[in-house]
Write a structure and sequence with these properties.
Structural class: alpha+beta
Oligomer: single chain
Helix content: 55-70%
CATH class of the largest domain: Mainly Alpha
Strand order of the largest sheet: 1-10-13-12-11-14
Shape: rod-shaped
Distance between the termini: 89 Å
Largest sheet: 6 strands, antiparallel, barrel
CATH topology of the largest domain: Helix Hairpins
Strand content: 15-25%
Amino acid sequence: MKTNLRAGSQSATTFTRFMRSLGADRARRSLIGILLALLFLGAWVAWLFLARVTVYEVTESARIEAEGAGYTVESAVAGRVVSTQLKLGREVKAGDALAELDTDEQRMKLEEERTRLRSIGPQIDAIAGEVAAEERALENARRASVVALEEARSRVGEAEVAAQFAAEEARRLGELFAQGYVAELVILKARSDAKGRRAAVESLKLNASRMERDQQTVESERRVRIEKLLRERRELEAARASSASAVERLQGEIERRTIRSPVSGQLGEVTTSKEGAVVGAGDKLGTVVPAAGGLRIIAEFPASALGRVREGQGARMRLTSFPWTQYGSLAARVTRVAGELRDGKIRVELAVEMPEGSPLTIQHGLPGSIEVEVERVAPATLLLRAVKILTRPSASSDANRGGDG
């Protein structure tokens, strides 16, 4: 009996000790769990405020271009392509003919204007000869008229002297007739002779006046003919200038129908390469990539990137043609940022940083996406920004409700 009691007492003691040990283990485990939780929370808070996360500005609108950009080959006028040397990858020099448009109509008009221009010159020379002949004839007639007029005036003077002498003779005979020294027939004859000589004087004066008027009439008629010839010459000279201008214009139009390379380089894009194709004024036929210079990246970012994307920032480009998981991305650096928006976009230029041994092969025109590293901030900052963005609509709706109230 005593043995059973002792065994039961020992079992109770062992159970009590076990329960105490189990409680102590639980307390230690709880303490360790709390300490681990506090440690994890502290580490998370430290990471939240002390760590740095890279923030990127991303755009899908990016492409690789040659330095100075590719030069567009476009048609200055509308027409039909009759000859073309537009072949992708062809090396060209500045001024090389790349395509020709139909010029039959312009060449026909050009030949007509040249024929008209050649015919006008002899006409102008002929009129110039006529003008010179008329001017010489006018000068000769003027000199002859002056001589004839002087001669007529001399005859008037001579007749005037004779008339005065006859009048004086008639007066003197009249005195003698009054004294009875001469017969009446003599005085009558003297007076008749004086009247005749006076009439001759008047006739000569009228003749001289008529000669002067005739001279003026002849000179006026010749001047009218000369002025008419000069007017015809001016009209022909104007027609010659117009034809010369038309010739230059048609030559320029024919030249514009020969589409030439703006720079030396390589044809990196061809949009029209078939003879017989009809193009309009300003239509793009291709692009010439300059021979000299490296490559750059041109990207367009949304308006929100203005002020965030700055020169010197690092970036990476993922080319559409090369999966980035296989080929990786292309390192770049921002070199220029536009100062104003255009069509709601901001233009950014980046320099390519091509590492040696890269599997990527880049060339003008390759598209892709760009990630620009704009800042490094704590995760807490990003969290606060996200909260601010999420609470902004509710704040505005509360304001609207307050306004309604």
